[in-house]
Please model this.
Amino acid sequence: MSGPAPVVDAARLADDLDAPPRGRRRERGALWAWVVVIIAITYFIVPLISTLEFSLRAAVKDPVTGEFIRPSLQAYTLVFNDPKFIDALLYSFRMALVTIAVSLLLLVPTAFWVRLKLPRLRPVVELVTLMPFVIPPVILVFGLIRTYSGQPFAIISTPLGADAVLVGAYVVLSFPYMYRAVDTGLASIDLRSLTEAAQSMGAGWPRILWSVIFPNLRSALLSGAFLTLAIVIGEYTIANFLVGTKPFGPYLSLLGQNKAYEPAAVSLISFGITWAAMLMILIVGRGGGRGRAPVTGAR
Amino acid sequence: MTVKATTAGIPGASPASRRFSWNWLGVVPFFAFAIAFMFLPITFLVVGSFQSAGQWTLANYIGLGDAYIQTAYRNSIILSAITAIGGGILGFLIAAALVLGRLPRALTAGMLTFSGVASNFAGVPLALAFVFTIGNNGLLTKLLDEHLGINIVTQAGFSLYSILGLAIVYMYFQLPLMILIIVPAIEGLRKDWREAALNLGATPRQYWRSIALPILMPTILGTIILLFGNAFGAQATAFQLTGGTIPIAPVVIGTQIRGDVLRNPGLGYAMAMGMVVIMGISIGLYSLLQRRAERWLRS
Amino acid sequence: MAFLSLSGIRKEFGEHIAVHRFDLDVGEGEFVSFLGPSGCGKTTTLRMIAGFELPTSGVIRIADEDISRKPPNQRNVGMVFQSYALFPNMSVANNIAFGLKMRKESKGAIKTRVAELLELIHLPQAADKYPYELSGGMQQRVALARALAFRPRVLLLDEPLSALDAKIRLSLRQEIRAIQRQLGITTVYVTHDQEEALSLSDRIVVMSQGRMEQVGTPSEIYNTPATEFVARFVGTLNILPGVVVDAPSGRVKVAGQELRVGSPVTAMNGSQVHVALRPEAIAIASGDVDGNLLSGTVADVTFLGSIVRIRVRLGDGSGPVAFDTFNNPHAAPPAIGAAVTLAFPPEALLVLAESATPSHALVDADGLPAT
Model:
């Protein structure tokens, strides 16, 4: 692409769109809209189809005839039989669960406390939770390694230490989405009245959080959790530099460099996991908010 | 700024305790976490960028003038600019088609959900998917060759492993980001603005030129800038595709973490700081423009 | 000759009929209101005049020109929206000038005209302000100026005051009427607020469920409602069920008591009707009285200061009939449960024509279901 295209296109298209209004509400769609959307769908679907096609290219040797059959599910078979695949998936899954737990335990009480007791601090806290957008993962991991591999905090050398830093990084990465979900959820309930009512009945802070706040935030928290799950499982940069090829992302990367067809299968599996997580977000998110799919950025 | 020792309107506070209320303890865990896993690493990077062999120096920043590093930054800027502007315009078109094109509701909802998924598909799986599509052995490459006799590799000299190739891949997460941000903005265009404009004698095209596009412009520009930052920080996708053969800033920084190319960690830190500055400016401009847009749309 | 005329207008949205039939001739300079509850079709009809909806059948004419199929940007009518619809990216002056710019008037002419209008709405200092800096009332005045700037033939207002505070509503209402009179522009005003319609209009069209219930001056609508719907929606009439005893002599039986109606009855003998009774004409009967007498028991007495509001339930349980008497410190109002006889002249009693609106859709002035 050589330069910015003229912006006038939308105006010209608007002319076609706005024929004299007719009586019925939702009539046939405008032609230009269909063209645009079909091209877009093509762009988005073709890579997925290619991946699918590639994943079926592995040949299977027919035990009877001895011939090689394509297409086949051989790639998938190999993948599921590969212990490294299961290990990587489970490892990332475990990391995701720990991340979600830590993130919830950290952010829900904080958001609750700030709203209730320190409202003036809210913009500051919000700003801090948005900072991960300014720090790309590659920079973050760079800093983390620098901080925790030398004196005085040399913990990355141990596997547990490295895992801990990984979780820490992921929790930070989840800040924008988790905090936003929690904050929106809190905004929709009358926090002060609920808390005061609970207090007047003798509840202490932990009880209030557990029995009053968490249940009301259920759908917001689940949305945030699924999003974090999707992010952690797909993450590559931080995982790679901190713990090597144990997690799912680096595993896939290594696979992509070494094998031909298995990476396609794993890619599709990864895509499927993300889809499932997003669908869960939509289903769960229906309680509070528009249930729109949230956005994550580049990797 | 003078602090007035007044307690008007602050429940339960006396002048002395106002600044040292125990309430602040409640947010300590959050800030401690943010410091441990975000601010401290960044500080180490900042400090490290001003040090070389234990001495305070600006040599690292001067070293940013190195030709290789300059190329890396230049490539990053070009790549980010292309995908930001291209993604912005095309994303706007798609968003306009979805909101204004009178398409079936299911299609629009599906596209929006898919956008959420696609933006999370970034990184290794995305790079692989495009290798499977338009790489040397990709499905599309093969199809074009066999059925249309067009070999994009040998004839047109196209390579996926180039800035252009990266740009095509990056669109996969740039477009959804633009769509997801712009769709609510277009939906925010009130129907009665359009009716008022028509009533006053405007054609639909004039309405778009004089009212709709100007109202949307802060959001469009802001999101394009956001897209720029988004592409600038992306490491995983590029590294998977090019393996570091094409110098772009995040990839070079990535190799720095291993201490591969240059034996000077301070230089790496300086590069990282350069990136953070660019990202910070990008996010800052985006929120400024967003605030302006909200002010208008709220009236 | 009518300046604005709607003939045989009908509007269907698929299965749903929003407007069954609308016929109206508006004279030049006349102020006509469309009054009715939500969903009655008043806004749909207004939008058909503006061109945002096309009638399924029927003709709309302005000054004898058929504009029924013209696109909205060629009709030369000015519209004021409930939500002001000011363009947020333009200053007040540019908003007002927009219609003139679309008509490619010269810069000088535009400048003069904008200044004129800012004077008209008493906001000369707001020229460079932006809509988000203005209050609701000010925004609506700017919207009015914007609609008038290009000298439209007809002015349309779609519930312009509904989004404003009560106090502003009152003052802006009067301002709108004053400006309209001053400019002499033919105006159609849509509202669900009967007070607005009564105080502003030359004529009112009362609508319900897509049908015209009555067209008339405010006085006609209030004092002689044509149908039960109009009677319930506008004003404070008491409505009672009755049976026609003798149509030519105008005798009807209400709660077992025979009453005389002021005008001949068109319904047939023996038919069930609704009668309307104006509260201002009711008094407690004392001694021998000519005219109608209605007996009942006092259900409720409310002291409102200078006025005492009394509600009476009739023998067959119908009512309550409400009326006000002036507070008289020397004469106590009747006690609750006491028997009382009401007296009123025949002219205060009206037989209502059946409304096409089903009884479950009858609403009072506040839009609440009428009992």
